[in-house]
Design brief:
Chain A: Belongs to the DNA polymerase delta/II small subunit family. Chain A: It is found in: Nucleus. Chain A: This is DNA-directed DNA polymerase. Chain A: It catalyses: DNA(n) + a 2'-deoxyribonucleoside 5'-triphosphate = DNA(n+1) + diphosphate. Chain A: It comes from Saitozyma podzolica. The complex is a heterodimer of chains A (545) and B (515). By secondary structure, chain A is an alpha/beta fold. Chain A folds into two domains: 265 residues, Purple Acid Phosphatase, chain A, domain 2, CATH 3.60.21.50; 140 residues, Beta Barrel (OB fold (Dihydrolipoamide Acetyltransferase, E2P)). Chain A is 22% helix and 19% strand. Chain A contains 13 helices and 18 strands. In chain A, the strands form three sheets. Chain A has a six-stranded mixed sheet with strand order 1-12-13-14-16-15. A six-stranded mixed sheet of chain A has the order 11-10-9-8-17-18. In chain A, helix 10 packs across helix 11. With 515 residues, chain B is α+β, with helices and mostly antiparallel strands. Chain B has a domain of 133 residues: 50s Ribosomal Protein L17, Chain: A, CATH 3.90.1030. Chain B is 45% helix and 13% strand. Chain B has 21 helices and seven strands. In chain B, strands 1-4-2-3 form a four-stranded antiparallel sheet. Chain B has a three-stranded antiparallel sheet with strand order 5-6-7. Classes of the chains: A alpha/beta (545), B alpha+beta (515). The interface between A and B is large, with 164 and 129 residues. Strand 18 of chain A pairs parallel with strand 3 of chain B, so a sheet runs across the interface.
Chain lengths: 545, 515
Amino acid sequence: MASPLPAEPGPAPRRPNPSYSSLPELSKPFVIDPANRSYRHQYSNVYFVRLVELRPIVEKRAEERWKAVRGKPPLLPRILNLQRSQLCYIVGTVYLDMPLKPNVLEDMARDHWIVPPAPRPEFFSAQDAVHLEDESGRVRLVGDVIKRERDREGGGLVTGLIMAVLGMETSSGDFEVVDLCFAGLPELYKAPGDVNGTGHGKVKGKGKGKGKAEGMDVDEAPLSGQDKTWVALVSGLSVGAQEAPADLKTQLLVEWLTGESGGPSRTRGSRLQDQLEGARVARLILAGNSLTMPVRGTDDKQPKRFNTSNKTLYPSHPTKTLSLVLSDILSSALPINLIPGPSDPAGATLPQQPLPSVMFGGPKVKGLECMTNPAWLEVGERRSEHVSEHHLSQALVHGKGETLNRDSFFGTGGQTIDDVYKYLPSNARLSMARRTLEWRHIAPTAPDTLWMYPFPDADPFILRQRPDVYFIGNQPEFETALVGDADAPTRIILLPSFAKTGQVALLCLETLECKTVEFEVPTWVGEANGHGVGGMKEEGDVKME
Amino acid sequence: MSTDQQKSANRRIKQWLETERRIVTYREVAREVGCHINEAKNLLLSYPSEGYRTYLLTGLLLSHSTLAQTQLPLERNGLDEKSLAALSSTQMVRIVDMDQVSEDERNSEDGDMAMEGLGEEAPVLEKEEEGLEGLDAEKVTRFGVVLVGEEGLEEKKGLFEQGQVSIHVYSLSPAPVKDPAQYLVPNVALRQLPSYHAPEKYGTITGDAFAPNVPVPATKPKEMKDGAMDFSGGKKAEKEKKEEGKVKEVAVKKETKSVEQPKKAEVKKVEPPKKEPAKATSKAKKRVIHSDDEDEDDGEGESQSKAGNLPAESSSSKKAAAIKEPTSSMVREADRAAMEAMMGMDMDMDADLDLDMVDEAEESADKSGSRGTKGSKETKSKDVEDKVKKEPQEGAGTSRKRRKVKKSKTEMDDKGYMITRDYYTDESYSGESESEADVSKTKTAKRPSVTKTASRQSSVSNDEPAERRKSGSGTPFGGGAAGSGVGAGKAKPAAKPNAPAARGQSTLAGFFKKK
């Protein structure tokens, strides 16, 4: 049973205050200037830019990879120049011919008297054909290698990625693939002034990181739990979902983040463990779907004028509710980054533009930053010593114990991986996320099946640098893994919907370590039979004024 | 906490539970009683009651424990396999097995012979060491926060690692809680408390991420009836400040009236940029609608007073004002306008009212001096003209008549939206006889003028409705005074207590006139 808590009316716990930057040089491509927004451009430009930018990288890597192959296969600059039975390699954009993929021409031709079939969760089928194309032409890729690559767990090919293939043309005009090669993981992001070769050895001379008082005094000792600085990542708050349990979870989250809930953990002495854990969270990132889509048919109903129904009177205005939640969190000096997702009112095309901050109280609300959908940011300090302890890197060279590091974060609301998922047979979303890093393109399927703004002369989704943390919102379940070299890893985090699972990911800035906090609320009377919730509740005997 | 405090706290809890029959959460206790959040939890724990307790468990979860999930309505749609199978069993639909390999794929195997020579070379290719198998998800430490009623407490404890869980009372309620929304209800009320956020008092987390102003309870946006936020928050204060500013302005104008020389400066001021009147009016309009921000007003007032007193400086000060214009306050204004449109909130109704009155006061102060030249000056700057709509506004005695003209102007704002604004401006036109016009010209030449925004001019003449009506009755636009509200284009007869009420609608025909 519960026992009395030792009340320590001492000073309120204080959060660390690591430095923060929205990395304008990386975020800028995602911002579409509303004054010159134009939807008249052709999408072909996007593919063209993508090929032009990524081709040299892929060619270079392919050359290294295949230089040992006997016969020195040459690189053919144009796919049209293919010679039959000559071993060579070509670089181009993958196109998957998928019978199940929605086709706008079929839509147009469809007889509209018949209800269209429901959209499929995936396009993948065994009849898909892989093509490789460049400006000159297109060739079909065949062979076991390509089939295996397409089907294996953790592999997969999608339309729009740039790839090199080694092989030769067959008598039927197809290209038999022996091996293939992507652009590979890009370099880890380094701040412009960062001269050190290693990704994480950076002497920070700037007087940032004011909140390091407790954390940074301890020099060589490994960080204890109390000294770590965490960033909380939440996706899918789904405020306004009309599901009270979801709202209650959000409330519990707020209470946890503000250090109200929880108490001491018995084995760890009398310290107020939970409250201190919450106090080490230095930033909150809301990765998509903070608001929910209105449900047609229920949300547009006229509210009853008199409170005749038995539903409780809880404000049903999602934006206002969310802004209350945010203001509660902000009141505990926890800065928030708000990234829109598929269900947020931020447009359907990627990159989604920031939600207007005026929705949440306007620019006078300090600490809330509304961001674009793919978004870059950089938070805080990571101590190189700790990295070295883990990964044998030579970071200690910089000495002094004050070698602070900043972690770059890059994340999306989840549409990119969701769309890649449709192309692949597997469910391994973690590998899909890693694949997007290897392809150096976070959304290759845009603009084919993923809506995107028609950039006239750029493809902002090309990944030139790798973040320390790559998070993807609105995934079915929480997963995380480290990819890349041991001394320059990237942490991939898949975030599930908070409203559904109650999971929050916490990432340690110092060690890239990850953990979760999970919230559960009881199941309610009448909820056992799934959809019956609404019906049951309406007849229920709960009456609130 | 003294026993006294404890007693009074218990009394209050008792009242909530037994008299009001409602749920009491620890947050509420802390705020109402004004104690540390942990003391509040202890209070609830020690409260002797038969009521229903809800506990919050926090601690390390066992690696295999699973927490309940919430079904969201949106995830229920989608194509499930069962329905497809059912569809095919009806034989109405033929489902192609997409797992079959297509014909050409099979045929293409004949390309293999070319590859044979390569067979021994294949091993040379170093296999991609990474990525051949799926990426395994890491196991992570899981920390749980579980809310549970008293009946499920023991069971839920099993989710946590032994000895790693802490339990405290979340709430007391008179009866078992069946609806999760009940836990949320107290928070709605709590947010209205002035001392809702006080980290020092309740021992909640604070920090200095945005140190200079951690949201102070007083400035926190206040709640509306439905528990939501009132975005017009500090606006009232702004408005008040602004009114002060205006009073100042009025004073300044009185001064300029007495000084004879400002005319030259004025000429300069009105003439140069074509856009000027439009901007001015639009600003004025905004002010009427949204109760603009104070500093902008001050800037204007300042530049004006300078123009009045130091003609030489007028252009520079004007420039300053022009530079000042697209400041954050403008942006904020635009944002707010967008927001209001979005949320369909009409909270500025009352703001209009006060402002109108201020305007009138101001205008009556400077009307005698400023009216004359306006007409001729403004005609220079008209660029887009839509509808001519108003009756002459000149007082009796002159026949150089002025009428109010509604123009609209379309421009692209800095956010890329095409914005069409209606604004009113005065335009002179010659009356029936030329000579009279000449008279008025000479007259106007003498007058110093302070060109104010058009919305104000419109109300200049409010004080002489009788004359106006007389002179206006002969024009084709007679009776046009019809309820053209001040610049805003809204008819709001009730908003004006005195003269304008009459002006609101002088004839029945006027009511139906196009505006």
